[in-house]
Amino acid sequence: MSGRGFQVAETVTLKNSSGTVVDTTHTIQDGSFEFTGVPNDTYTVTSKFAKVTCAEAAE
């Protein structure tokens, strides 16, 4: 699962459909981030400045 449009070095948190934090990461220079090894589920990605729901996951 990955995304773009965030600020550099922003903390991004991944929560599963139960609201449990699954992982956290930081954005890189272009504002992108990536979570790897994420099982199929519905996730919410949150950050300090934005809240988005990702509908795309890589297996």
Shape: globular
Poorly predicted runs are: none
Order of helices and strands, N to C? EEEEEE
Write out the strand line-up for the largest beta sheet, numbering strands in chain order. Answer: 3-2-5-6
How many individual domains?
Answer: 1
Mean pLDDT: 79
Give the strand tally.
6
Question: Could you give a short account of the major beta sheet?
Answer: 4 strands, antiparallel
Radius of gyration: 10 Å
Proportion of helical residues:
under 10%
Distance between the termini: 8 Å
Number of helix segments?
0
Report the structural category.
mainly beta
Strand content: 35-45%
SSE arrangement:
Layout: E1 2-3, E2 11-15, E3 21-26, E4 33-34, E5 44-47, E6 51-52
Antiparallel strand pairs: 1-4, 2-3, 2-5, 5-6
InterPro entries: Ig-like_fold
Protein name: SD-repeat containing protein B domain-containing protein
Question: How would you describe this protein?
Answer:
This is SD-repeat containing protein B domain-containing protein. InterPro entries: Ig-like_fold. One of its GO terms (biological process) is carbohydrate metabolic process. With 59 residues, this protein is mainly beta. It has one domain. It is built from no helices and six strands. The protein is globular and about 30 Å long. The model has no long low-confidence stretch (mean pLDDT 79).
Question: Which key phrases capture this entry?
Answer:
single chain, 59 residues, mainly beta, 4-stranded antiparallel β-sheet, two-stranded antiparallel sheet, SD-repeat containing protein B domain-containing protein, Ig-like_fold
